Structure formats: C-alpha cells, structure tokens
Amino acid sequence: MNLTERFINYTRFDTQSAEDAATTPSTPDKQLAFARCLRDELLAEGLADVELDEKGYIYATLKGNIDDRTVPAIGFIAHYDTSPDCSGANVRARIIKNYDGGDITLSEGIVSSPKKFPELLAHIGEDLIVSDGTTLLGADDKAGIAEIVQAVCFLRDHPEIKHGPVRIAFNPDEEIGEGAHHFDVKKFGCAWAYTMDGGDLGELEYENFNAAGAKIVIKGVSVHTGYAKGKMLNASRVAAELLAMMPESELPETTEGYEGFYHLVSQNSSTEQARMYFIIRDHNREKFLSRKAFMQSCIDTLNAKYGAGTVEADIYDQYANMKEIIDANRHTVDLVLTAFEQLAIPPKVQPIRGGTDGAQLSFRGLPCPNIFAGGVNFHGPHEFVSVQVMEKAMAVVVKICELAAKTNY
Predict the structure, then answer these.
(1) Which candidate, 402, 358, 336, places its Cα nearest to that of 166?
(2) Which tens digits make up the pLDDT trace of 331-368?
(3) Total Cβ atoms within 10 A of residue 54
(4) Distance of alpha carbon 231 from alpha carbon 306, whole angstroms
(5) Which of 166, 210, 385, 406 counts the highest number of beta carbons within 10 A?
(6) Is 312 annotated in the active site?
(7) Rg of the chain in Å (alpha carbons)
(8) 34-67 per-position pLDDT tens digit
(9) Are 149 and 168 in contact (CB under 8 A)?
C-alpha cells in the first residue's frame, strides 16, 4: 500500500470527537472502530509491541537494526480524531492531478479558489487531495498517521538505513484538548518524540499558546415581560454585556503571530440562564496571567452590578507553552533542521496559534516539537493536502531516525 492509498483509506472512517463527552474516547463508537483497524494494520505490517488500550491509545515499535544500546528510542505521534467543527462522516476524497493553479470545484456552490485561499498557489503542479465539499478531509491528522506508518514500513524494507528503536503512538481526542491526557509516557519509553501534526511544507513548531478555558454560568430572573420592571434580570443580556467587555483588538479575527486573544467558543442562553465558554490564549506567560485576571475582573464587575453570585466562572488552565522545555532540549529541534537541510526542505519555524498534544507531553517529561504533516485549511470543507508534501513529511521521519542513530545524545 502506498502513502496516498493509506491516507485515503483512513479518511473513510468518521472519527469526529465531541466536546463535553463523559468518555475517552469522546466518541467511542467512531474512534475505536478506526483504532481497531489501525491496530490490525500495524500487526499485519509486522510491527512489535502493538497495543490498543481501553482508552483508545495505540502503541507500536519498529525494532532497531543497529547493535548499539546507546542509540535512543525515538518517538512519533499523531492523533486520529477529527474536529467537531465540521462533519467527518462519509468523506469522499479525490485527487486533483497536477494542480494548475485555478479554482477547484468541490461540489455545487463550494469552490476552493486561490483568490480566497492563496496557499493553493504554493502547490501548482502537485497532486492535491480534497474532499467533496460536504465534509472536512481529515488530513488533520490522518496525514500524520499515514506518514508515520509509511515511514516505519519504509525503514523495515530498507535495512541499509541504520536506526535505533522507533516508537509510534496514535491517540484520540486531540481536537478537544484531551489527546495527551491518558498518554502513557513511561510505557512509550522515549527520551523525546515528535508530533506529526503541523501544516504545510517545512513547518516546525515548538512554541505554542499558554491556554485556559473559562466556563461561565449567568443566573437571571425570569418574570412575565408585562410585569418585569424592576424584577427581571435577563441572563442573555448580561451575557452580551460580558462579551462586549472583551477588547475588539484582542479577538482571534483581529490578531496574528504572537498576539493573544479571548474567544467566545459557544453560548446557550435564555432569560433565566446563560452558559458561555471562552478560551484565553497568549504565548507570553505574564500576559497570559494578566488575561486570566482580566476575565475574572469582568466577572467581578458584573457581580458588583447585578448581585453576588449572578455570574459564576470556572477559569482553568488547559496547557502551557512548550518553548521552555524545548529550549532545554534543543537537540530535538536541531535534528529536524538537519533533516530538512539534507532533504532540501526550506524550514518555516513559527509559533503555533493553538496547541498540540506535544505541548502537554513536553511538560510530562517527553519533549515533543511539532513537524508538518502537509494539511492546509484544517477543520473545514476547503481542507486539502499535497501528495508530494506528504511524501516529504514521510521522508523527514525516515531521515530523523537515520540521523538519531549517528549522533550521541
């Protein structure tokens, strides 16, 4: 099976995760169905130590072919769930051969145009895999899974490439921020690893947001509108007031690069009660702490205005910026940059305006930078991935394994 076939086969599984589920995986009927098939595939490919645990985490090993106990085990990780933002059911992937730089009609009325998505122009002459416009594609992160599996199969079939033990792992629920929660770092047994979960060619990321969530409950007072004067407290209106307190210049749609933001993810409100879910993000630790304090000050202001207990807030940390961990383990980045250089891949080192499982794993003792997997325009029907970029990502995995066996760490 070649890389493209492997990836397209993976996209046929609906593995969409779900917020606020009480189980892991969050959608066991969907995600575990794929996990079982992937486990069986790894067994069929002859990998060792293949395991699927009760939480949906898959582990496997390609044994080293060099008799040197000093060669470290190196790890590669990808997630198999897809975003709750867009349907992942009945994905119909197709290949646009030798893309000519023009519009791509996905389905009636749904067109991926370089006028709106200029990133397409970087892939003229390449073979692009797209959906039919009714679902996402699932390159985030089934492209990463396909690249890792194809890479270990390539190493298995090319014993002339010397390498140490290669550990691979695939997990559920990354898209809802829980992908690393049940990851067994000790069992994985690596000094460091990489998530293959980045975007376009050459991306290398080891800085991410500090992240917090804020679950807000607003208690209103419902009274017949004809007799409401001096009695009613409309929770929906208080929710609108809270949202208006967020600076317009500090929203996702008005920020870029290292700029942080506040984002209202969801809201469900009536006169009697409103529930809001915000996320708070910033790369800078001090600014992040200030943002959390600002959110709490907004809550305090509303409680002072409408009465204590009107607004209740649970503001909690989700993950932290992995940069401090990676800076202390700089070889993890240098190894990738050397691989890029030898493969003639121009590096694009940039901060993640989000987070990865690797951020959480880094703080649990597994330094874990993030490498490109090739997908572009994640989480929506305009998602695509270049076959040629996937092949280069696979080659990066192979090259890293080769280089790690030649260097003392």
Answers:
(1) 402
(2) 999 999 999 999 999 999 999 888 788 999 999 999 99
(3) 9
(4) 12
(5) 385
(6) no
(7) 23
(8) 999 999 999 999 999 999 999 999 999 999 999 7
(9) yes
- In this predicted structure, what is the pLDDT of residue 88? 95
- Residue type at position 122: A
Query: Which position among 14, 81, 175, 200 bears the catalytic label?
Result: 81
Q: Which of 11, 34, 2 minimizes the C-alpha distance to 129?
A: 11
Residue ranges, the chain, pLDDT below 70: 408-409
Instruction: Give catalytic status of residue 81 as yes or no.
Output: yes
What sign results for the dihedral spanned by CA atoms 176, 177, 182, 185? positive
Which of 193, 154, 153, 191 minimizes the C-alpha distance to 170? 193
CA of 86: how far to CAs of 20, 68, 83, 134, 257, in Å? Answer: 16, 47, 6, 9, 25
What is the rounded CA–CA span in Å between residue 96 and residue 129? 6
Six token digits for residue 281: 């993000």
> Is 288 exposed, middle or buried (CB count within 10 Å of its CB: 0-12, 13-18, 19+)?
buried
In the numeric block, which tokens belong to residue 211?
A: 């992240």
Among candidate residues 174, 175, 197, 207, the one labeled active-site is 174
